[in-house]
Amino acid sequence: MRVIIVKDYDAMSKLAAKFIREQMEVKPNLVLGLATGSTPLGLYKELIRMHKEEHLDFSKVVTFNLDEYIGLPKDHPESYYSFMWDNLFKHINIPESHIHIPDGTIVTPEEIESGRLPIRKIEAYCEWYENEIKKYGGIDIQVLGIGRDGHIGFNEPGSSLGSRTRIKTLLEVTRRDNARFFDGDINKVPKYALTMGVGTIMEAKTLLLLASGENKAEAIKMTVEGPVTARYPATIIQLHPKAIVIVDEPAASQLEYEYERA
Ligand code: F6R
Question: Of the listed 68, 130, 140, 149, which one is catalytic?
């Protein structure tokens, strides 16, 4: 694992964008795995700037998003579909047919809660999503944020470290953290999500995990220096042959050992 500590959020975002750009120069049809949330916003802004000012070309790039809420229509302002279009896709020249975001409308929260799950339909959809990734030769770079509880994608503590794309129930800590996007009201935050599994994420050729801010310090300490455990699903990246962790100083504040600084 390569751990790089940078000064702040801006430096984290720029270094991550530089890395992706370099890979796009080598492989213009790069397959990118993408995350949502606050963490990658600066990275997406920098990629948009590179596209607008330096003609970075996304016409051959293919993307797969990690996850999507269940229970929000696609056009809901807080769906990850809207998030990705507003914060990246509509500003770059990526063809719509190259974009993949899990469809959180294949099942409703009511169906989940009633126990009348359309299991075949869900399984078929999840299998289709995984097969699409394979069809493009796998994900070259998977961008990851991290939850305070150590989740990656929406693989909450206790997730199987070999899990595949499936439905997960969000923990209260995650819903509380995400309430800031829903008028501060936890009751408006969906309870379920469709997410790539930990096993799916681990198949990406490179993992690029980003973290900023002191509230991520404990999760980063566990991820980099703790034992591999389903208690903190992100710790699995210690087993990945090419995992890069870019953290700012506050997020790195609990790390015990010396790491690369940029
Ligand atoms: C979202 C995702 C999540 C977030 C995590 C951190 O697609 O995969 O794992 O990366 O919840 O969220 P932020 O960046 O908002 O702190």
Answer: 149
Total tally of structural domains belonging to the chain: 1
Question: Is 54 in the active site?
Answer: no
- 130-145 residue pLDDT tens: 999 999 999 999 999 9
Residue 115 has what pLDDT?
Answer: 87
Full-prediction pTM beyond 0.85?
Answer: yes
CATH of the domain at 129: 3.40.50.1360
Question: Ligand 1 pocket check: which of 65, 148, 151 to mutate, most ligand atoms within 8 Å of Cβ?
Answer: 151
Q: Tell me which of 38, 39, 201 to substitute to probe ligand 1's pocket, judged by most ligand atoms within 8 Å of the beta carbon.
A: 39
Q: DSSP 3-state assignment of 143?
A: strand
Name the token pair of 113.
């809660």
Instruction: Establish if 36 belongs to a structural domain.
Output: yes
Neighbours of 2 (CB within 10 A): 10
Q: Is residue 150 part of a domain?
A: no
Ligand 1-lining residues (CB < 6 angstroms): 35-39, 66-67, 145-147, 151-153
- How many Å lie between the centroid of ligand 1 and the Cα of residue 177? 10
Residues 106-134, buried b or exposed e (16+ Cβ, 10 A)? bbeeeebeeeeeeeeebeebbeebbeebe
Give me the domain span that covers residue 115: 8-139+160-202
Amino acid at 209: L
Helical (H) or strand (E) element with 69: strand 67-70
Q: Is residue 28 assigned to a domain?
A: yes
Among residues 151, 177, 240, 248, the one annotated as catalytic is: 151
Atom 2 of ligand 1, residue of closest alpha carbon? 153
Instruction: Tell me whether residue 37 is in a domain.
Output: yes
Contact 2, 245 (CB under 8 A): yes
